[in-house]
Amino acid sequence: MVRILGLDVSKSSVSACLLTGKPEDPRQFYYECPFFVFGANAKGIQELLALKPDIALLEPTGTNYSKLWGTHLARSGVEVRLVGHKELKNYRANHLALPDKDDDADALALACYYFDYQTEPRRFIQIRDLRIVKIRELVLRLAHLNRVQSPIINRIRQDLAWQFPEVALVRSRRSESGEVPLLWGWLALERKSTRYDRLYSQTVGLGITDTVRQHARRICDLQREEHVIEVELRELLADSRFENYRTVFKKFGFGDHLCAVLISQIYPIEGFLDTTGKPIVKILPGRNSKKPTKRHLSLRRFQKALGAAPSMSASGDSKKILVVGGSDLCRKALWQWVFTRIEPKPQRLKNEIGQILGNQIDTEKAAGRPVKLVRNRVAAKGTKLLFKELIKVHCSPKM
Fold it and tell me: What is the pLDDT of residues 325-340, one digit of tens each?
């Protein structure tokens, strides 16, 4: 008899529901079920593992809350499956007709979900291996550090506008070896610069304050932390399993950061394919024409994962094409790639990919279409070409 555990994770505790079979009337069972609540401490973990579940189901609640419980369960030999937020919400409300959302209702719904969909692996979010999990954690940390630095840098520049205006708009970058940017290092009194010394001796500004120097030291600390993470990411991406992916990414001119973001979302590519390793394509009636139409389901799921799948939103006479779902981090990174490697002609990729996407962006901009829409369309086209190239490498005969 399989013991299934549904876990709804909160900040400092979990609500748990243990089942050995799906209740005939889940709504009535909700009022009778002996739910458990465990705190995020040694006692709580011990009591949870004492239930001896075979399989545990939970939602991917960030990398901080669910990680604690999922890791301890996995270390104890419990199979851990993740259920998407949207899928669980629909299942709880439409299939189980459970009362208003609460922690116990979610825990019960998660446990029941297994019995209805245990033979359909695509109903569950793919559980990545430890290297992919680590890559994703580092990518998210980099994004966090970037968000933290931006307001500090903006504050420094505003202060420099009256303290040392000659350098207020200088763009200073970290060296490849990881040495902090010269401007921030000089302001923090960590690096020497005869140029900045000379400019400061002749400045019309009112003088650098201790507050600006403190902010500069914070930027230097954050930049050093960024460098350590980037080095670790490069080491993780050097794994031989990613060799074909890196080869394809090089054709697109992706930098290390974008490579890491993409790998964290799409590896392994087999997760988007059928059991024979081929893209899933189905012939279905068109929504409006009713004629047989090819539906490229694998491509659609791939684009969805990267946040580049357009969706139709219609209400009455109003119709809109929106890009919803998927990774916001990927969507932003792809947009930046279009902005830096496809749109500007001097930096444009000198290959077929650059030519195809470059022609599209030039043509659409010349036609007067909104620039934001054009960049989104080019990013979506780029993900189509990326999927095609990855499939070409994946399906090529092995020597």
Answer: 457 889 999 999 999 9
| Amino acid identity, position 306 | L
Confidence of residue 315 (pLDDT cuts 50, 70, 90): very low
Residue 391: how many CB atoms within 10 A of its CB?
Answer: 20
User: CB of 30 within 8 A of CB of 99?
Assistant: yes
Judged against a pLDDT cut of 80, whether residue 317 lies above it is answered with no
Say if residues 347 and 341 touch (Cβ distance below 8 Å). yes
Determine the 3-state secondary structure of 7 from DSSP: strand
Burial class (CB in 10 A: 0-12, 13-18, 19+), 356: middle
pTM: 0.76
Dihedral over Cα of 89, 90, 93, 98: its sign: negative
Give the count of beta carbons closer than 10 Å to the beta carbon of residue 323. Answer: 17
Strands 13-19 and 79-82: unpaired
| pLDDT (tens digit per residue) in 96-149 | 888 667 899 999 999 999 999 998 877 887 665 678 888 988 998 999 999 999
Return left, alpha or beta for 147; rule: phi > 0 is left, psi -120 to 50 is alpha, else beta: alpha
Q: What angle do CA 328, 331, 337 make, to 5 degrees?
A: 140
Ordered DSSP codes for 266-278: H-SGGGGB-TTSS
> Residue 80: helix, strand or coil by DSSP?
strand
The CATH 3.30.420.10 portion of the chain extends over: 4-123
Architecture of domain 131-237: Orthogonal Bundle (1.10)
Which DSSP symbol is given to 279?
B
Is residue 312 scored above 50 in pLDDT?
Answer: no
Report DSSP state, residue 174.
-
d(C-alpha 104, C-alpha 399), whole Å: 54
Rounded to whole angstroms, the Cα distance separating 54 from 1 reads: 9
With tokens 């444009």, the residue in question is: 348
- Structure token digits, residue 173: 């970058």
Torsion 235-236-239-245 (CA) sign: negative
Report whether pLDDT(270) > 50: yes
Beta strands in the chain (DSSP E): 4-9, 13-19, 36-39, 55-58, 79-82, 281-285, 292-296, 310-315, 318-323
Mean local confidence (pLDDT), 38-66: 88
Question: Rounded to an integer, what distance in angstroms lies between the CA atom of residue 362 and that of residue 376?
Answer: 14
Span(s) in the chain for CATH 1.10.287.4070:
131-237
Q: Is 4-123 in CATH node 2.30.30.240?
A: no
